[in-house]
C-alpha cells in the first residue's frame, strides 16, 4: 500500500492500494476512537460497496447509519444537501461522530459540505470510488454543491481526516469512469509533471503509482496555497471552458470529458495568443484520445463565453485563466473578460 501524508490546516494520510476497502474500520481506528459513523453514498455505489464498508466499520467498533441518494451530478444540489443534513439530525449525530463519504466526486463534495456545516463542522473521511475523485476532489478539502447558476457555487474548505483509495473500485460503475479520471491525471502532467505526461504516453506507469504521483502533486500545491488564493488555481487547468461546456451539454458530457475539451481550448489559446513556448495541442490531443477522451465539442465561442462569465473564477470584469506554456509548466493569467472572449474566438 502507498501512503501520502498531507500537512494542511489538518494533517491526514491518503492510503492507496488494491482491495483495501475491507480494512476501512482498521484504518479509521488509527485516527478516530469508535463512535457513530454516518456513511453518505449514492444508490449505485451502495449496491457495490456499502456492505463491505459497513461491515468493516462495525467490526472495528463503529456504529453505522447510512444514507444513499440517486447517483449523478444532478443530485449535487441544495435539496440533496438539505436531505443529508436532516438525516444527520434525525440520526442524532454529534460533533464527535464522523461522516464517511463513500463514492465519486459528487458524493465526496456534498458529504464533505454537510460535514463542514452540520453542527458547525464535524470530522469526515473520503473513500473515493472513482479515479477522478481519488486524484482530485477527495484531497485538499474543497467541498461544494452546485447552484442553478453554476457548478460548485456554494461550498467550504474542510479537510478530511483520512482518504482511502481502493484502486479496485475505480471504473467498476461505468465504462467512461476511468477515462474520465485520466483527464484529471493528464491535467496534473500538463500543470507540472512532464515525466508523468511522457509515462502516460508510453504506458510505463500503473494505476497505483499514477494516483500516488497525482496526489503528491496536489498535496504540494495545497500545502502551499490551501485556500486557493494563488498557486492552487493552477489545478483549474481546463476547468473554465470545461465547466461551461459541461453545463451547455446539460451534463451529458462527463466532468472528465469536459475538462479534456477545456484543456484543448486553453492550449489552443496558449499557442494562438503567444503564451506557448512549444507546440502543446497535438501532443495533448493524442494523449487524451489514447484514454478515450474527446478533444472538441460542437459549441460556439459565444456560447462558451456566456456561461464562463458566471464562473467562480470571474472577479468583477476580469477572469484568471490557467495557460500552459509547455507540457509540465502553466501560468496564471488575469485578463479582462473582453480579452477572454477574443481568445475564445481565436481558439474555438
Ligand atoms: N479541484 C481543484 C482544487 O482542488 O483546487
Description of the structure:
The protein has 348 residues and is α/β, with parallel strands linked by helices. The chain is built from 13 helices and twelve strands. The protein has helices spanning 24-29, 43-59, 78-90, 105-117, 131-137, 176-192, 194-202, 207-224, 239-248, 255-272, 281-290, 301-308, 337-347, and strands spanning 2-7, 11-17, 36-42, 63-69, 98-103, 123-128, 142-147, 150-157, 162-166, 314-315, 318-326, 329-336. A seven-stranded mixed beta sheet has the order 1-2-9-6-5-3-4. It has a three-stranded antiparallel beta sheet with strand order 10-11-12. The relative contact order is 0.11. The structure holds glycine. Residues 136, 140, 142, 228, 232, 235 line the site of glycine.
In summary, what is this structure?
With 348 residues, this protein is of the alpha/beta class. Helix content is 45%, strand content 22%. Strands 1-2-9-6-5-3-4 form a seven-stranded mixed beta sheet. A three-stranded antiparallel beta sheet has the order 10-11-12.
Please mark out the parts with pLDDT under 50 across 5 or more consecutive residues, or reply none: none
Major beta-sheet overview: 7 strands, mixed
Tell me the fraction of residues in β-strands, as a range: 15-25%
Q: Give the proportion of residues in helices.
A: 40-55%
Question: What integer value in Å does the Rg equal?
Answer: 20 Å
Helical run tally: 13
> In total, how many beta strands?
12
Global morphology: globular
Mean pLDDT: 95
Distance between the termini: 43 Å
**How are the strands of the biggest sheet laid out side by side?**
1-2-9-6-5-3-4
Give the bound compounds.
glycine
Amino acid at each position: 500500500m502507498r501512503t501520502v501524508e498531507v500537512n494542511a490546516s489538518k494533517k491526514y494520510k491518503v492510503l492507496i492500494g488494491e482491495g483495501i476497502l475491507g480494512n476501512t474500520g482498521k484504518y479509521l481506528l488509527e485516527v478516530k476512537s469508535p463512535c457513530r459513523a454516518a456513511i453518505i453514498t449514492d444508490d449505485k455505489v451502495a449496491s457495490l460497496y456499502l456492505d463491505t464498508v459497513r461491515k468493516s466499520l462495525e467490526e472495528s467498533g463503529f456504529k453505522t447509519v447510512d444514507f444513499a441518494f440517486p447517483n449523478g451530478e444532478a443530485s449535487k444540489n441544495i435539496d440533496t444537501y438539505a436531505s443529508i443534513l436532516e438525516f444527520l439530525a434525525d440520526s442524532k449525530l454529534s460533533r464527535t461522530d464522523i461522516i464517511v463519504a463513500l463514492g465519486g466526486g459528487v458524493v465526496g463534495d456534498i458529504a464533505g459540505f454537510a460535514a463542514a456545516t452540520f453542527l458547525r463542522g464535524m470530522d469526515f473521511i473520503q473513500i473515493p470510488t472513482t479515479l477522478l475523485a481519488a486524484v482530485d476532489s477527495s484531497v485538499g478539502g474543497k467541498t461544494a454543491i452546485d447552484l442553478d447558476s453554476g457548478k460548485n457555487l456554494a461550498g467550504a474548505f474542510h479537510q478530511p481526516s483520512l482518504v482511502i483509495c481502493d484502486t479496485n473500485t475505480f471504473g467498476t460503475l461505468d465504462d467512461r469512469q476511468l477515462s474520465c479520471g485520466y483527464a484529471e491525471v493528464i491535467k496534473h502532467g500538463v500543470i507540472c509533471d512532464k515525466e508523468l505526461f511522457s509515462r502516460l504516453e508510453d504506458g510505463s506507469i500503473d494505476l497505483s503509482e499514477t494516483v500516488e504521483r497525482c496526489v503528491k502533486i496536489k498535496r504540494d500545491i495545497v500545502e502551499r496555497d490551501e485556500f486557493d488564493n494563488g498557486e492552487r488555481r493552477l489545478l483549474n487547468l481546463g476547468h473554465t471552458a470545461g465547466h461551461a461546456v459541461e453545463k451547455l451539454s446539460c451534463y451529458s458530457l462527463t466532468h472528465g470529458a469536459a475538462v479534456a475539451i477545456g484543456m484543448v481550448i486553453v492550449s489552443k489559446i496558449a499557442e494562438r495568443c503567444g503564451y506557448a513556448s512549444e507546440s502543446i495541442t497535438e501532443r495533448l490531443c493524442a494523449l487524451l484520445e489514447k484514454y478515450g477522451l474527446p478533444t472538441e465539442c460542437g459549441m460556439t465561442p459565444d456560447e462558451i463565453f456566456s456561461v464562463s462569465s458566471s464562473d467562480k473564477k470571474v472577479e468583477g470584469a476580469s477572469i484568471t485563466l490557467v495557460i500552459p506554456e509547455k507540457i509540465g509548466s502553466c501560468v496564471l493569467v488575469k485578463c479582462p473578460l473582453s480579452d477572454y472572449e477574443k481568445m475564445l474566438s481565436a481558439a474555438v
